Amino acid sequence: MLAILAKHRRFHAARALLDEMRRSSLASPAVVLLLTRHYCTARAVAVFRALPSLGFRPSITEFPGLLNALCRYKNVQDAEHLLLSSEEFPFETKSFNIVLNGGCNTVCSVQEAKMFWSAMEIKDI
């Protein structure tokens, strides 16, 4: 149901349903990420940061899901900025690979890929 509401951009109704699910202990971070994938614009980062207000503490396992959602919907620059500016989550190979792959698939710029790869090397990833 959440996926249908999100697909049709009925985010207020999806949020209300999510609140009901949370009260019934049916919600999980995976459910929130489902909404995030459909709501993947600059607001997706705000949704991710709102996880604590929904009763969830975002962890390193959900962070790559956000990066993947951003890249899938061609928000690679947002994903890169979030990855490089995040102080909450440590740098790890998986996160960098998601952004690198997203950049290669959407931007198709070898020069940008090399610059990002250099950033990975500088950070010892």
Automatic annotation (TrEMBL):
PANTHER family the record matches: MEMBRANE-ASSOCIATED SALT-INDUCIBLE PROTEIN-LIKE, PENTACOTRIPEPTIDE-REPEAT REGION OF PRORP DOMAIN-CONTAINING PROTEIN
Name of the protein this chain belongs to: Pentatricopeptide repeat-containing protein
Organism of derivation: Zizania palustris
